[in-house]
Amino acid sequence: MAWLYLIIAALFETAWTFSVKYFKFSSFRLLNTTNIYKAEGIYIVAPLLGYIIFGIANVYFFSLAIKQVPTAMAFAVWTASTLVFIKLVDVFFFRQHISWAETFFLMLIMIGIIGMRIYSVSPDK
């Protein structure tokens, strides 16, 4: 179950990252009672709400995972998974290109994580 928690935490971290990308403090001056419920107000408030909600969910699921998985392993898997998810969102939703070199190095990261998982020493309880 801990590995599932790590993947869920990585998905929330990915959503949190894009919330930070679109979060603008300067836009809050434009927010008032007449436009807060309209589309222009939603575009201002949504990144802030995403920042808070996705951040809390990310920390919650990551904390569940590190209770069952060694901390270094959990952090490595969480970070690598987040990196892959961010790149997938960039490619499929934002239509950014991915080079063969990027693909190769992402695969190296994932191979390293799998290697750590296979060859890690489990703690004695």
What's the topology here?
Layout: H1 2-22, H2 39-66, H3 71-92, H4 100-119
Helix/strand-derived category reads: mainly alpha
The CA-CA distance between the termini, in Å, is 18 Å
- Give the beta-strand count: 0
Mean pLDDT: 88
- Helix and strand element order: HHHH
- Beta-strand level of the residues, as a percent range? under 5%
Low-confidence stretches: none
Plain-language structure description:
The protein has 125 residues and is mainly alpha-helical. It has one domain (2-119). 73% of the residues lie in helices and 0% in strands. The two termini are 18 Å apart. 16% of the residues are buried. The mean pLDDT is 88.
Keywords:
125 residues, mainly alpha, 4 helices, flat
Quick description:
It contains four helices and no strands. With 125 residues, it is mainly α. The two termini are 18 Å apart.
